[in-house]
Design a protein that fits this description.
alpha/beta, Formyl_transf_N, Formyl_transf_N_sf, transferase, purine biosynthesis
Length: 188
């Protein structure tokens, strides 16, 4: 099965997934797509021998660009790993129950428009939460509203800074996200 990883930033989860599936005979990371030409994730993917593509907003929302791109690499599953733009409906329709997202909070809390990266961790800190975590969910037309597939939690202390919260949550991603993706792909 060929997967595409969509990413907007640094790409630590992207690199982790590429490495995790590197020797897997059933799953191949065939493409990394970013909406930003300068996303460091593209350099990580290229260093690991994975083809890359840039899909700025106009391309992302153009079925005549995105569908042929994904077909060129025979993509059958899409993983959003730090991807910020909403996925257009035509892609959701073309990949029904075949697109998942990683969110840096325990949904349904701290989800929706504008809730990404440090914005999420700042909100968790401001609310005085005693735990945070990561959520993997199916992508739907509504931001962060898809059915939850998996969640992992970590305890927080009142002394944790926003950066501490981010690091604790990121460690969960590094540990659990590739296995969650693998389990989903095995179930298809």
């Amino acid at each position: 099965m060929n997967i595409a990883i969509f990413v907007s930033g640094g790409g630590t989860n992207c690199e982790n997934l590429i490495n995790y599936f590197a020797d897997n005979e059933s799953v191949h990371t065939a493409l990394v797509v970013s909406n930003k030409h300068d996303a460091y994730a593209l350099a990580r993917a290229e260093r690991l021998g994975v083809p890359t593509a840039v899909a700025p907003k106009a391309d992302l929302h153009n079925p005549d660009v995105m569908l042929p791109l994904l077909q060129k690499y025979d993509i059958s599953f899409i993983v959003l790993a730090g991807w910020l733009p909403l996925i257009p409906d035509f892609l959701i329709d073309a990949y029904p129950h075949r697109i998942i997202n990683l969110h840096p909070a325990l949904l349904p809390k701290y989800g929706g428009k504008g809730m990404w990266g440090h914005h999420v961790h700042e909100a968790v800190k401001a609310a005085g939460e005693t735990e945070t975590g990561m959520t993997v969910h199916w992508v739907t037309p509504v931001c962060d509203a898809g059915e939850i597939i998996a969640q992992y939690k970590v305890a927080l202390s009142p002394n944790d800074t926003v950066d501490d919260i981010a690091e604790k949550e990121h460690q969960l991603e590094m540990q659990y996200f590739p296995k969650v993706v693998e389990d989903i792909l095995k179930s298809l």
